Amino acid sequence: MEMNRAVVAMQPSGIRRITAEARRIGGCISLTLGEPDFDTPAPVCERTRRALGEGYTHYPPNAGYEPLRAQIAAHENARHGTDYTADEVIVTAGSTEAIASALLAILNPGDEVIVPVPAFGLYEQLIALAGGVDVPLHTEADGFQIAQERLDACLTPRTKAILITSPNNPTGCVLEAASLERVARAAREHDLFVLLDAVYDRLVYRPDVPHLMDDRTLRDRLIVVQSFSKPYAMTGWRVGYGIADAPVARQMLKVHAALVVGVSAFSQRGCEGIFDVDIEPMRLRYLQRRDYVLGRLEKMGLETVRPDGAFYVFPSIARFGMTSEAFALRLMREAKVAVVPSSCFGVEGFVRITYCYSDEELREGMDRLERFVESLER
């Protein structure tokens, strides 16, 4: 019997594959997963325990509890001057499910989605599962910004949406105002949806980072997905949300309800009040770690575009004359350091280093990487 061809064509996560290989080898410093090393904030855990005691163990409303959705809308409105209502918010099983629900809601078979690369590998798979076609827009020659001529070359009569991430995974770079305006103009002129993965937008390291939600002209075509995983160290909770104009949100809700029914009741109750939690200490620690890693990479002569958000750096390894996969495997086997090859993100010539690990792990990882780089240059 024939299986779903889109599913058969899917490859297991390259990030998880590298991480598993590091565990198998043993003794590795693994700088692969975007897994914060902090604990979930105590107020969230306490509210969740209280919700369990109060019997929140049954079906929640499909879209999520109204108090949490109202808080989400108010939070985003305060940040961006928007006017979203609770009815335009869907609480989802992390941002991944929000992306899947959005793509399944807007795509018809053969519709194309432009994705600036490097990009999180799951996007391509979710687009294929929704019957769409992933169209990569390369940014590595443009400082990981969106060049007008490259965007124009990707646009066709089949283009339905542009999917962007800012700050970006794997580069940590933010899209500057000019890049965002090019996306917005293309969306307006070609009647496209814009899907913004904003899961790292509270982990930025300068005050003037532009945001697509600030553009009022995109209100009816912008879909924003968010997650509590990264800023609140809640990757295992699987709670996120999607925000969209009411007609779009209604279609997304149909998909969401069919896929997961709703997000666990007690987890949602635990997240009420989450925006009152102070994440500044975590952000500052990530900033310190970023600066440490950048300093070490500079001394090694590894060129890196300075990341202004998330917790990744993306140094070039092109000068060593090997693929990113070969570099990562040699680094892991010879120096016992695990990083992610850029081939996992649709480009070549780089590796992703994650710095949301302890200072001790980062120091040892950088020491081992430095010795490995020196061995390649002898």
TrEMBL record:
Record keyword Chloroplast present: no
GO BP field: amino acid metabolic process
GO molecular function list: pyridoxal phosphate binding; transaminase activity
Key words of the record: Aminotransferase, Pyridoxal phosphate, Transferase
One Pfam family this sequence matches: Aminotran_1_2
Coiled coil: none
PROSITE patterns, A to Z: AA_TRANSFER_CLASS_1
Known cofactor(s): pyridoxal 5'-phosphate
Residue intervals of the Aminotransferase class I/classII large domain: 28-369
EC number, UniProt record: 2.6.1.-
Family classification: Belongs to the class-I pyridoxal-phosphate-dependent aminotransferase family.
Protein name: Aminotransferase
Organism: Candidatus Onthenecus intestinigallinarum
